[in-house]
Design brief:
By secondary structure, the chain is mainly alpha-helical. The protein contains 6 helices and no strands. It has one domain. Helices cover 65% and strands 0% of the residues.
Length: 129
């Protein structure tokens, strides 16, 4: 709508879109925006990247325009590096505690599931041979 080439048709099209997709207005609600950020940008890393302001600040170094983050080829590597750092600083001990609290059978089943679902785990085990 701020485009010099906007027309009444463009405005009508936008209004029709908003009528069909009222959830768009929720994007301006802080909690809904944060949830969309967790789900749409952070994905699997959201469980450890809980300081959203810090993550956004780091992603602003990729580009000041958040709309470009998802198409930036550096996004995945940046998120992985942030997640690894946060995991090592604040989560690894908690995870070790959870593993120690598992029964032997539960831990074994969890490891088998990891081997089936994670190439990295499988490769690490194979490299021990």
């Amino acid at each position: 709508m701020n485009n010099k080439e906007s027309s009444v048709a463009n405005v009508d099209e936008a209004l029709d879109f908003f009528a069909v997709h009222p959830e768009v207005f929720g994007w301006f609600d802080g909690k809904k925006a944060d949830e969309a950020f967790r789900r749409g940008v952070l994905g699997r890393y959201a469980v450890v990247l809980t300081d959203l302001a810090s993550v956004r600040s780091r992603l602003n170094k990729l580009s000041a325009d958040p709309d470009s983050w998802l198409v930036d080829p550096r996004l995945e590597a940046t998120l992985q590096k942030l997640a690894e750092s946060e995991y090592n600083l604040n989560c690894a001990e908690r995870v070790r505690g959870k593993v120690r609290a598992m029964s032997a059978d539960e831990a074994k089943q969890y490891l088998v599931d990891l081997v089936v679902n994670s190439l990295d785990v499988g490769l690490a085990i194979l490299s021990k041979e």
